[in-house]
Amino acid sequence: MNNTVTGLSIVVPFFNEEENVEEVYKSIKQTVDKIGLPYEIIFIDDGSLDGTYQIIMDIASKDSKLKVVKFKFNSGQTSAMQAGFDYAQNDLIIPMDGDMQNDPEDIPLLISKIEEGYDVVSGWRKKRMDKAISRRLPSIIANKVISYIGKVPLHDYGCSLKAYRKDILKNVNLYGEMHRFIPIYASWYGAKVTEVPVKHHPRTKGTSKYGLSRTFKVILDLVTIKFLGRYSTKPIYFFGSLGFIGFFLSFLGAIYVVYNQIFNQRDIIDSPVFLFSIMAFLLAAQFVLMGLLAEIQIRIYHEAQHKRPYIVETTLNIKK
């Protein structure tokens, strides 16, 4: 296998980052010009309500290597990254944040690891410049949980600065907050994953778009990842197992109340175990039916055409 990188696609999502756009562009441009590889910079305007798109449009009018995708409405960072991956033309894709906290000077480091034979190189903000209690501590806990569940041990799933060989992203479709789990998706398809420490700068302009609600979304997406990892093609195994457990508990409860009725002359109707048995049976039946419905939906999902989780309003410097 040839590990040489032939071209770069730098993907940067923006949402209300008018104060950072120009500086992000200049810092990326300065770095990639030195690398000497063919490149493109893809800016995704994720439905910004400030002057972000106007600034991007002005820059793109002067630089054809800056490609622009504008969404009709805010669709989230994951959808913006998916759009960047869809429009990328080169064999190495490097996403990064648009708030100047990632450092483009780390791009050559990512490239060197890719050329060692890795398919995914994840940035590790070893010296993270965020608030300790509200950002860093929850991140440490979350990364340990994700690493344990996903079976891909990384220190920093939340770092946007990563490098992906384009061909390993062909089988990845992103929804929710799933962009942070790409290394797990990639590992399912046999990708070699590693990480490298990267620089991290404090935010000096604009406001953070991350809040507590994002944490809950990540937790729910993690549950989805675990489910897809084990039962993506046979969800009936998951729901069916719960159903059989319910049927078994219902059967035990039924034996208990019948035994009491025959040998202890206790009325079945007055027994709480009898009510438990009925509830367990009904829940078991529901789980089995849910499994059948999920099975049908999974088959439709695999057979139907995929719809992208974003709507593009316009593009600049992109050949269709």
Summarize the structure in words.
With 320 residues, the chain is of the alpha/beta class. The chain has 2 domains: 8-228, Spore Coat Polysaccharide Biosynthesis Protein SpsA, Chain A, CATH 3.90.550.10; 235-303. It is built from 9 helices and 8 strands. The chain has helices at 21-35, 52-60, 77-87, 107-114, 132-150, 182-188, 212-231, 235-263, 272-303, and strands spanning 8-14, 39-45, 66-71, 92-95, 120-124, 162-165, 193-197, 312-316. Strands 7-5-6-4-1-2-3-8 form an 8-stranded mixed beta sheet, sandwiched between helices. Strand 1, helix 1 (21-35) and strand 2 form a beta-alpha-beta unit. Helix 8 (235-263) packs antiparallel against helix 9. The protein starts with 7 loop residues before the first strand and ends with a strand.
Q: What is the structure about, briefly put?
A:
This protein is 47% helix and 13% strand. By secondary structure, it is of the alpha/beta class.
